[in-house]
Amino acid sequence: MKITPQTKIVEMIKAxxxxxxxxASYNSHFELLRNPIMRKTFARFAxxxxxxxxxxxxxxxxxxxxxxxxxxxxxxxxxxxxxxSKISPDIPIYPVKDIIEQRHIKITNLxxxxxxxxxxxxxxxxxxxxxxxxxxxxxxxxxxxxxxPLYDVLQKKGFEHQxxxxxxxxxxxxxxxxxxxxxxxxxxxxxxRIREEGGTVYLDVRGLEPPQPMAMVLGTxxxxxxxxxxxxxxxxxxxxxxxxxxxxxxTYETHELDQHNVQLIIKPKSR
Length: 271
Hints:
Helix content is 39%, strand content 21%. It is an alpha+beta fold.
């Protein structure tokens, strides 16, 4: 069984249980895999790509480590993370935490850190809370590690998210599910306004009322490949956007082409 970024953790451990020890020795985050309950919950949805993000380790190094441990050889092609290889037009169109706070949206708070530290089963508790969150409401979840597999599960239910790392073992994730009618309209609008050519993503926010232009720009930048740049077509100089870009470490330049045509070139911070 060759291990790739798309390999499910649960399938990998089932075929090679010795990899639990290999992973735990490699990075302390993987100690959680020794817990059978965690393997039955989060690991059931997690891929190797997810695991690398949770632990904050290099994906290629992790794949080589595991394949070497089971006597498999891998090529560069085997290490391509197909889930992250291309920007999607369905990217979130706003920074979730900001929109929740600006709209004074009803929030359900759930802290499962103690459950996780005591080797409990957090997934059913989380999903019970999710079931009670109505469209147009939010869930703020606190965990001891970044629950990357949960993002995919809740995205299928219509949730976007924003993650904050408050400490090495304290993550706060803001989940928000927009009202169905708004999601459909915004996704359609985004697809019409965004395109990608080579190393550049183009976004046209002309004609939109605030705060939509800012929300679209920040949402696009949050998912942008670090090797690419974003070119924004705006109808005014976005003075209120600049502090947000500075806060996130983005570099940018503004070109006023004419009275109602402003071009903004934004680059992600160097990694």
